[in-house]
């Protein structure tokens, strides 16, 4: 009797988990990878910036895992709506939850919910064509945009806003989104860090890319970049500081857009009455290592404020959750009897995509060691296919996903753009394999 495991979430953490299971099990395995969306790859499809094609090519690696005979993809199956944690426990020897970090962290300042104050998660989902954020969500009609945070997500959203639509034509950005980017009124981008250049979270490669944009001048202020000795800093941090300092002396080349990278400023209020009009900032200093306001304020005019201060996970029904760390409490991936966790849901939103590979391998080692201790296994009492059929839930199969992908390739040809152009909306995806009209819940 093969070992039966469900993996909830088909992003990198989920698929690396499936791969680790096939490699480490030492016995036949059957792995079902479930996703609430009709499409696999999670953040690789809906998080990695469209112009970062080399990172997106990780999908090619993940695809090979989904194509293993021991692995099955079941799209459009949502935990809490179509299946419960108890259903999964009855159908599998073990369940590994890998649903990542789907929402933004809150700033907790006045004005955060004004129209025009946007979570970076939503904005990223928008330009990546996520079915939950339709193309009409954003119209980029402000000349000034403030981006709070100096991590790699902030760099991504700044870069996408700074590029011309022509530069993004060959990417898989949905056509309706590209049309909106082409009409963008954005002229000035302000990217704001609450600490100094040496504390910024972005990586050197990503930072350098901002300085090489052909459509955007970049600037940093001397007094915010600092001029202290950098020799004791790590290579990565020193590199960031040196690049930022080199931008201080740059003469603007008259490019259509401008990026002003700011430091030592924390957001205290998003200003506006019916929609965002500006961002009030307070100058900061580090006192005993803590970010502390100095009582000196300034206002950056902005019709849109993008809050890019980190992602966080959401609780899953039937799975323990720590509301302080915003992760699932675990020991080396073990949550409880038959329940495991991997990826951002396990350790928080940190690291690069590849970090999830070793993270998933650790969880799988724990899982297999637990099963070895448990000894002889009884067959799980239920089968997921029967549970779903009884509820008239029709999962999207891997082959059907391939039809979605083929439709995206055909759209790119029809539009004379790149290799793929994303379909937006679940109905367009389902139409790609003739699903429209079948009974069952809307995906
Ligand atoms: P992040 O790296 O944690 O950066 C969050 C930023 O928000 C930091 O600058 C942080 O400043 C700031 N921040 C947090 N709370 C704040 C507050 N209350 N007020 C003002 N600023 C605040 O998060 P991320 O950018 O969302 O990235 C998540 C993960 O994805 C990271 O591991 C990242 O490297 C990865 N990623 C990688 C790529 C890539 O490789 N190209 C692309 C995108 C994302 P403090 O440091 O002061 O807290």
From TrEMBL:
Name by which UniProt lists this protein: ferredoxin--NADP(+) reductase
Gene3D superfamilies with a match to the protein in the record: FAD/NAD(P)-binding domain, NAD(P)-binding Rossmann-like Domain
Superkingdom assignment: Bacteria
Keyword terms of this UniProt record: FAD, Flavoprotein, NADP, Oxidoreductase
Amino-acid positions noted as binding NADP(+) in the UniProt annotation, renumbered to this chain: 194-195, 206, 351
Family matches, as InterPro entries: FAD/NAD-bd_sf, FAD/NAD-binding_dom, Ferredox_Rdtase, Ferredox_Rdtase_adrenod
Binding site for FAD: 13, 43, 79, 344, 351-353
Enzyme Commission code: 1.18.1.2
Organism name: Sphaerisporangium rubeum
SUPFAM superfamilies membership: Nucleotide-binding domain
Reactions that this protein is recorded to catalyse: 2 reduced [2Fe-2S]-[ferredoxin] + NADP(+) + H(+) = 2 oxidized [2Fe-2S]-[ferredoxin] + NADPH
Family membership: Belongs to the ferredoxin--NADP reductase type 1 family.
Domain called FAD/NAD(P)-binding: residue spans: 4-180
Cofactor requirement: FAD
MF (Gene Ontology): ferredoxin-NADP+ reductase activity
């Amino acid at each position: 009797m093969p070992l039966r495991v469900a993996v909830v979430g088909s992003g990198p953490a989920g698929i690396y988990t499936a791969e680790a299971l096939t490699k480490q099990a030492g016995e036949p395995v059957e792995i079902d990878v479930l996703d609430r969306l009709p499409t696999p790859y999670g953040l690789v499809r809906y998080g990695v910036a469209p112009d970062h094609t080399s990172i997106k090519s990780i999908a090619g690696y993940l695809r090979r895992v989904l194509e293993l005979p021991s692995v099955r993809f079941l799209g459009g199956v949502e935990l809490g709506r179509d299946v419960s944690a108890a259903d999964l426990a009855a159908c599998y020897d073990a369940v590994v939850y890998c649903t990542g970090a789907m929402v933004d962290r809150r700033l907790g300042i006045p004005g955060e919910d004004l129209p025009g104050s946007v979570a970076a998660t939503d904005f990223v989902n928008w330009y990546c064509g996520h079915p939950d954020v339709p193309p009409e969500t954003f119209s980029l009609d402000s000349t000034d945009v403030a981006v709070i945070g100096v991590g790699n997500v902030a760099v991504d959203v700044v870069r996408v806003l700074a590029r011309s639509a022509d530069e993004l034509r060959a990417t898989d950005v949905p056509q309706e989104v590209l049309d909106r980017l082409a009409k963008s009124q954005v002229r000035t981008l302000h990217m704001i860090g609450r600490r100094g250049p040496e504390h910024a979270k972005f990586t050197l490669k990503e930072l350098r890319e901002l300085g090489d944009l052909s459509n955007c001048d970049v600037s940093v202020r001397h007094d915010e970049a600092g001029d202290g000795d950098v020799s004791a800093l790590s290579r990565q941090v020193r590199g960031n500081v040196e690049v930022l300092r080199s931008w201080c002396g740059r003469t603007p080349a008259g490019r259509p857009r401008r990026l002003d990278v700011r430091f030592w400023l924390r957001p205290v209020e998003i200003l506006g009455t019916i929609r965002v009009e500006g961002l009030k900032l307070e100058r900061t200093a580090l006192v005993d290592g803590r970010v502390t306001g100095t009582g000196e304020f300034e206002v950056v005019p902005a019709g849109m404020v993008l809050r890019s201060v980190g992602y966080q996970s959401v609780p899953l029904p039937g799975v323990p959750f720590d509301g302080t760390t915003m992760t699932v409490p675990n020991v080396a991936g073990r949550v409880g009897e038959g329940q495991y966790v991997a990826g951002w849901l396990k350790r928080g939103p940190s690291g690069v995509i590849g970090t999830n590979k070793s993270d998933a391998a650790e969880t799988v080692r724990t899982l297999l060691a637990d099963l070895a201790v448990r000894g002889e296994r009884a067959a799980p009492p239920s089968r997921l296919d029967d549970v779903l059929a009884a509820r008239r839930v029709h999962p999207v199969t891997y082959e059907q996903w391939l039809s979605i992908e083929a439709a995206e390739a055909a759209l790119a040809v029809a539009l004379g753009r790149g290799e793929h152009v994303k379909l937006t909306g679940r109905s367009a995806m389902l139409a790609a394999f003739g699903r429209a009209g079948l009974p069952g819940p809307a995906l």
